[in-house]
Design goal:
The protein is α/β, with parallel strands linked by helices. The chain contains eight helices and 14 strands. The chain has two domains: about 160 residues, Periplasmic binding protein-like II (D-Maltodextrin-Binding Protein, domain 2), CATH 3.40.190.10; about 100 residues, D-Maltodextrin-Binding Protein, domain 2, CATH 3.40.190.10. Helix 5 packs across helix 6. The radius of gyration is 19 Å and the shape is elongated.
């Protein structure tokens, strides 16, 4: 799924009204009592996830958030990982984390009020993709004059769409659906790569972890350029955290320590999936 306000893979569809929380007795039926009396299972890492959302999560366990979940489980002494599968639609958080069916969302944009954020474990950005040697080499911003007469793919209602509108690029743009059930159709990033290869579009703008993954998977000679030099308009970069319940303070502290102590290993997992990582100065992280 692609999200409207921020690239968290659950943030936007978690905007439905929060219903009353289940009683403590009801919640306790599905979880053990963890540190500080929190209802976090001490033996199993219970993860809330979309069953078909590569490269993030997949029911077969192939996504990088699946691999990260295995890493977190091992580092926190959990014996196994279990999943509550739920599609990334309105009510995701309410039906999973807040219903106490699971204890962690592996990828969540910093700042959303639906969950309590851990410290960020990576920072990434939207990217511009185009065929190498096709006349756009060296383009690094949406405002570049070389894009003025090009047909550019963009996912509707995402931050790059606003910047493209400011640059008068939407008239010829190919707009991809925001809400896609990837169990039945290809993700927008995957479709964009195919359309670049076929010449249907000249370039595309998409959330970096998706663009980097599908570009590498396709084997196409496509440039993946982090949009870190935009001078105006919507911001393109976001910090990604793990999401936990607001009440689970000790669990959050445990995860923050894990992130701090294991950042290099976390980066290795992400880079293995083509995620374009950037530091706080927008410099690329390559190892």
């Amino acid at each position: 799924m692609i999200f409207r306000r921020a690239p968290s893979l659950v943030a936007m569809f978690a905007l439905a009204g929060v219903l009353a929380m289940p009683s403590v007795a009801a919640m306790a039926q599905g979880a053990g009592i963890g540190a500080a009396g929190e209802l976090v299972d001490p033996d199993v890492l219970r993860v809330c996830a979309d069953p078909s959302n590569m490269p993030f999560t997949d029911q077969s366990g192939e996504g990088f958030e699946n691999k990260l979940a295995e890493f977190v489980a091992a580092k926190t002494g959990r014996k196994s990982v279990s999943y509550t599968w739920f599609p990334m639609v309105t009510g995701f958080v309410r039906q999973t984390l807040r219903a106490n069916r699971c204890d962690i969302i592996m990828g969540y944009a910093q700042g959303d009020e639906q969950v309590q954020n851990t410290n960020a474990y990576y920072r990434s950005t939207y990217v511009l993709m185009y065929k190498k040697g096709g006349g756009l080499d060296g383009v690094e911003t949406i405002e570049d004059p070389k894009l003025a007469d090009k047909r550019i793919g963009v996912v509707m209602s995402t931050p790059p769409a606003s910047n493209m509108a400011r640059a008068n690029l939407m008239k010829k743009a190919k707009v991809y659906e925001l809400m896609v059930d990837t169990r039945f159709t290809a993700s927008p990033a995957e479709m964009m790569i195919k359309d670049i290869q076929s010449g249907e579009i000249d370039a595309a703008v998409v959330w970096g972890p998706m663009g980097g993954y599908y570009a590498a998977k396709s084997g196409a000679d496509v440039a993946v350029v982090p949009l870190t030099k935009e001078k105006t308009g919507s911001r393109m970069s976001y910090r990604i955290t793990m999401g936990v319940r607001p009440s689970d303070q000790e669990w959050k502290r445990t995860l923050n320590r894990l992130i701090k102590d294991n950042q290099a290993e976390i980066n290795k997992i992400l880079l293995g999936y083509g995620v374009p990582l950037i530091d706080e100065q927008d410099k690329p992280i390559t190892q």
